[in-house]
Amino acid sequence: MNGARGESSRRAEVRSAARAWHAAGAIDETALGRIEAAYPEDHPRMSAAWRAVVFTIVTVAANALFFAYAEILHRESGAVPWLFFAIVLSAATELLLGRTRIGENGSAAATSFWAVVYAIAGIAIGDALHDSEANITAALLAAAVLCAAACWRWGFAAYGAFSAAALFLLLARFPHGRVAWLLLGTVLVAVAPRLQDRLSLAPPHRRASGGVFLAAAAAVYAAVNRWSLGERLVESLQRRSPARTEPDPTAIVLSWLATAAFPLLLILWGLRSRRTLVLDSGLVLAALSLVTLRFYVHLAPLWILLAAAGAALVLVALGLHRWLRRAPGEERHGFTARPLDEARRSLETAAVVAAFAPDAAPAAAREPGTFTPGGGRYGGGGATGGY
Length: 387
Description:
Strand content: under 5%
Largest sheet: 2 strands, antiparallel
Strand order of the largest sheet: 1-2
Low-confidence stretches: 341-367
Structural class: mainly alpha
Helix content: 55-70%
Mean pLDDT: 79
Oligomer: single chain
């Protein structure tokens, strides 16, 4: 990621936070103006909806060019067309991101995504690899490496999660994949959230660490979950799946304990550290643990259990919100009830909807008796006239 784009993302992050603070009443108009003057906008930025539209247009164009190239100029099968077009799209991404006024509109995101996809496909169908299992392994290895490189070079946060997910799937291809998921996932769960606070990293790289955390937390939970252990979920991803055997009773007991404890640890960590991503992950995994318990113990029909859990969460959320709203300054122990970023996102959505809406200006009302004739024509068959 070049320095100019990294600095641009830092300025945009500061301005976005300042506008959210202003919308919430945390700072006044004077403070907002000083912040925006200190961190000026280097180019206009599109909303997420407009970037999605541009991403779709560039996706259609890029794939159309690829299939035209493959059909007309390079008819032979193999990896060459895929790898060549991956290089072309990588060069296009570098060009677009070198001119930030163009690349930040979603076009660079599309070219980078398809560059990675075509490179992975070219490696997977390479002529040197005739074993389908070896092709899958090579594709996962390529996905882990290329997505990590794309995240670091081009600064798109989603590639961090893609790289971590591909790495875990790759580890599952080998024996003892469950142990590898547990060990590596635990390390990443502990390290990734702390990278979000490292100021030496650009904001896109800090956001990418959040995606790595989500992938790692899912991998750890899959490794210790009771249903995953009983169904041999991780082992089924191996190149040659081992014979199905019943888990050891000790492993079953430990799996039950971990299924309950891991979401609880994430919830407590999220509350203590004020990390909403960790807290939300723990809540989601806690719901999955409840579903796992229902699979083995018939407490009630599943729909009743899920409805009751959802209602309980809604009541808890409303209670917490009311508790925070009644506090001085609407804040208790570092938690606040003020939605600092909702107003800005709602305005962006409204602006996009308004841009797509037709221009419907109402006709000006006429006062009685102000009709002015003229300007019309009538006729046909050779007879015409005006009024």
